[in-house]
Design a protein that fits this description.
454 residues; alpha/beta; metal ion binding; GI Alpha 1, domain 2-like; 6-stranded mixed sheet; nucleotide-binding; two-stranded antiparallel sheet; disordered N terminus; P-loop_NTPase; Rossmann fold; binds magnesium ion; binds guanosine-5'-diphosphate; 2 domains
Length: 454
């Protein structure tokens, strides 16, 4: 199993040299080589023996070369369930080891994605506000606090507008069409000014439509987001799977709505685009070639994983710590953490990874630490055996680490192969990825027999 340096090291040795000497019938007609004259027989044996030694040396050197190449090439997969943070880590690697600059085309795509991510989050929050029966609360708040943002609308009016246009699609077409983005040219108008982001064909139709809705209704979103009532909905967001990091977008709506808006590095890191194909980036770091693969995590995407399983040096398995109280987007009754544990079990015990280093990233520690204050681990049915104190993130993390360790059938998980991470924090990722790189390279040398096992 490939989860730590406790694994016995397998050394690759050259096959034994081919036995010297021909076995008759070589060189035409003679059934018995003893009929040959001695010299020619001897010379045949010597020649043949020389050939075998040369061949053997060649095989040795080929093996050596292959082994050196393997040591200088590291194939790494990012695996884990959907929304655990794989693509964010992939983006951090690009910032750290690759080309941190993004083309305008890329930036425009992320601009559309950021705006559409806000609409997706708002749609869920507005729906959930109604489901939680908080409309009256919103009315009270509106009366007490006639306007919040700019005297132009109350939070109840903002809610009604968003409900009509984002959820019920009952708004009138003229009001819904902001006359903003121009789909054909890719350049749109925004409040009478040219909108830098405009449309992005790469973002897809749904995201472009949501980005248009954003420009038409962002003022209502700002007003509702500033209300007290929406804060109560936010605390209960797990039920509707709002992406936690999008709180940063919601806190910055005016900037993202501006015609001059260009996504920042942080905006790009928190942008959520569902990965639907295997993506690979190559890096050369300190003379070693790294191939890093990012894959889609949803159940429907996992059959594509198998295509990347060949000769994998390391798997970074990503699981979101904060998802202990959430259900899967694709199967509402399945707890996300349970799904991650099962997936981890099948990756660790997969024969394709018998000689692969498996590193575990327990991600989204920032959200976990916040959530643990109001969402009890033991209150989740699959984790009712949690006996630690409530609101205690250290105990909570240790509890989940043990759950992941228990997934290994016949091996121990070395603690240095586990990291508790925040993928959206570049400083944290720089540290974690550098130490992961060292661990992977050391483990690779051990597995190849160049270093002794611990
Ligand atoms: N707050 C926070 N958000 C995160 C973290 N890791 C990922 N995210 C966000 O979670 C969402 C899903 O992440 P993504 O990398 O697309 O997940 P993937 O499906 O595994 O590729 C994105 O919007 C990220 O910004 C984290 O450690 N903390
Ligand atoms: Mg992804």
């Amino acid at each position: 199993m490939g989860c730590g340096s406790s694994t016995p090291v397998q050394t690759v040795s050259a096959p034994p040299a081919t036995p010297a000497g021909g076995s008759g019938n070589i060189g035409g007609g003679d059934a018995d080589p003893s009929y040959r004259d001695r010299d020619s027989a001897t010379s045949f044996v010597n020649k043949s023996s020389k050939t075998s030694i040369a061949e053997s040396r060649q095989i040795d050197s080929e093996l050596e070369r292959a082994r050196n190449e393997d040591l200088h090439k590291i194939k790494m997969l990012l695996l884990g369930a959907g929304e655990s943070g794989k693509s964010t880590i992939f983006k951090q690697m690009r910032l750290l080891y690759g080309n941190a600059n993004r083309s305008d085309e890329d930036l425009k795509m992320y601009g559309v994605v950021a705006r559409s991510n806000i609409v997706v989050a708002m749609r869920k929050l507005v729906t959930h506000l109604g489901d939680l029966g908080l409309e009256e609360e919103l009315d009270r708040e509106s009366k007490n606090n006639a306007s919040i943002a700019d005297n132009s609308m109350t939070c109840r009016e903002a809610y009604d507008e968003l409900r009509a246009y984002l959820v019920d699609n009952s708004g009138t077409a003229s009001a819904q069409d902001p006359g903003t983005a121009n789909g054909d040219s890719g350049v749109g108008e925004n409040g009478g000014k040219t909108d830098w982001v405009g449309n992005s064909p790469r973002a897809g139709l749904a995201a472009n439509n949501d980005a248009k809705l954003f420009l038409a209704h962002y003022k209502a979103m700002e007003v509702l987001w500033k209300s007290q009532t929406i804060k109560q909905v936010w605390v209960k967001r797990s039920a509707v799977n709002v992406i936690d990091s999008h709180k940063d977008y919601l806190n910055d709506i005016a900037r993202i709505a501006s015609p001059d808006y260009k996504p920042t590095t942080q905006d790009i890191l928190i942008a959520r685009v569902r990965t639907t194909q295997v993506v690979m980036e190559k890096y050369r770091i300190d003379g070693i070639d790294f191939e890093v693969y990012d894959v889609g995590g949803q159940r429907s995407e996992r059959r594509k994983w198998i295509d990347c399983f060949d000769s994998v040096t390391a798997v970074i398995f990503v699981a979101a710590l904060s998802e202990y109280d959430q259900s899967l987007a694709e199967a509402k009754r399945t707890n996300r953490m349970v799904e991650a544990l099962e997936l981890f079990r099948s990756v660790c015990n997969n024969r394709a990874f018998a000689n692969t280093s498996i590193i575990l990233f327990l991600n989204k520690k920032d959200i976990f630490m916040e959530k643990i204050q109001y969402s009890d681990i033991a209150a989740q049915r699959p984790f009712c055996d949690y006996a630690g104190p409530t609101k205690d993130s250290d105990h909570g993390v240790l509890y989940f680490i043990q759950k992941f360790k228990d997934c290994l059938i016949d091996d121990e998980f070395n603690d240095s192969f586990i990291h508790v991470t925040c993928a959206t924090d570049t400083n944290n990722m720089e540290f974690v990825l550098e130490s992961t790189r060292t661990i992977i390279m050391t483990d690779n040398l051990k597995r190849s027999g160049f270093l002794g096992a611990d």
